Amino acid sequence: MNLLNRQEAIGVAHSKLILVGEHVVVYDKPAIAIPFPLKIVAKLKETYGQITFSSNLYNGKLDTIPLPMKGLEECIQKAFELCQKPLEGVHIEVTSDIPVGRGLGSSAALATALVRGIYNYFHKSLSLEELYQLVGLAETHAHGKPSGIDMMSVASDLPILYQRTIGASPLIVSKPFHVVVADTGKIGDTKKAVNHVKEIKLRRPQLVEAIIDEIEKIVMEAKEAILTGDAKGLGCLLTKNHEKLKELEVSDPLLDRLVELAIRAGALGAKLTGGGKGGCIIALARDKEHAIHIARKLKQDEAKMVWCFSNISEEIYFVD
Length: 320
Ligand code: MEV
Known about the structure:
The protein contains nine helices and twelve strands. α1 packs parallel to α2 and α1 packs antiparallel against α3. Strands 1, 2, 3, 4, 5, 6 and 7 form a seven-stranded mixed β-sheet that branches. A five-stranded antiparallel β-sheet has the order 9-10-8-11-12. It is of the alpha+beta class. The protein is globular. The structure holds (R)-mevalonate. (R)-mevalonate binds next to α4 and α5. The site of (R)-mevalonate has 15 residues, from α4 and α5.
């Protein structure tokens, strides 16, 4: 093997934000997710011997990857098998802007970048079905029984309306929305939060089913607000959704505090995003200057990181 002209390839995926409908999407209700332009890159390089892996989470041989990441091993093995290649001779290096465990889809984005990288490396075309099948292996390991919204949204460049038994349909946004994302710095556990909702649904089915139905209504109204460019209406729906997520007991005092702060700073609306019990909030701003104003207020308080972006651009215009 001539390692002077080593073969190389990359696979890229972006992060995601759930705008409305997290948790109810697990119960086959609709939810809306948008791309969040934080990126993860998997770079594959030809090498000798076993597959090796380097990232800020783990460095070493693929077959000794730690248990919480074992789903990735399965995903990589299957991808090599589908490409009809022996599982050897590649070093995989992962670099990521996406904080882990913050409801930003880092696990789905990592698996998506890896699968794309492997197919690029072997010059194979990758169908969406194959991508979802492979990323699904890693996601099932990471989250138990995920709804599938994370892997659909990290693979989509457009906002999507997603429902488990129907699939994803893209939403065409007529006007830009300015979004602020603030990180509590606290790692959330999606699996645990999903199980918590399941438990309270078993204990108080009528109450939880009523909340689920109310969130479904919020999601359908949010879809209209997005399609008609009604940022004010969408903002109110975000805040309403947060109240319902509080009733499902997946928020926490820090998330609530950041939501309140954002609203006090004039946000059109705000809510937790993703699994909750830690992780991030999103807030909707009137325009770019307003978004930066809200972001600064959040950062001066408890937020560990803030980002501002417009959902029709690829660019994050403020990070602190
Ligand atoms: C996590 O990003 C979204 C949840 O609804 C879980 C899922 O859909 O699998 C909380």
